Every structure is written in C-alpha cells, then in structure tokens.
Amino acid sequence: MSTQIAVRLPDDMVRFVDQLVEKGRGSSRAAVIVRALNRERRHEMAVQDAQIYAEAGEDADMIDLVRYLSGQPVDPDQ
User: Fold this and answer.
1) In the chain, count of helices (H) and strands (E)?
2) What is the mean pLDDT of each run of 10 residues along the chain (78 residues)?
3) What is the three-state SS of 48-64?
C-alpha cells in the first residue's frame, strides 16, 4: 500500500531530482525520493545499532575474534 503526500522542496532540490531521473538514476521523482528515504532509514537503523553496541560495552568473545582475524593473511583471490 502507498499513500500520496505533498512535499514542498526547494527549487534546486527538485532540479537535482529531475536530473537524476533524466540520467536514468530513477524511473520517477517518487522513485528517487523513496530511494533517498530508504537510505536515510538504513542510516538511522545503523545509528541505533551503534548506540546499542556502545551501551552494551565490550564483548570478550568478539574482541578475541577480532584479534584472531586481524592476524590472518588476506587472500584477495578468495
């Protein structure tokens, strides 16, 4: 389901959105704006996750894993 809303944007922002549509970076103004909002939503979720990790403190098992993995050679072919 979707809901149509009216949003007032500055002229330069509308020009930018229109340029993205012209370049094929979005099928419509709505598609460009939905993609931007999805990106913002993912960012907010990542910020919340970071706060949870910061509040939880260090995890001894994860520290040991990072120490182990940081000492392993990296094979770019795998």
Assistant:
1) 3, 0
2) 95 98 98 98 96 88 88 75
3) HHHHHHHHHCCCHHHHH
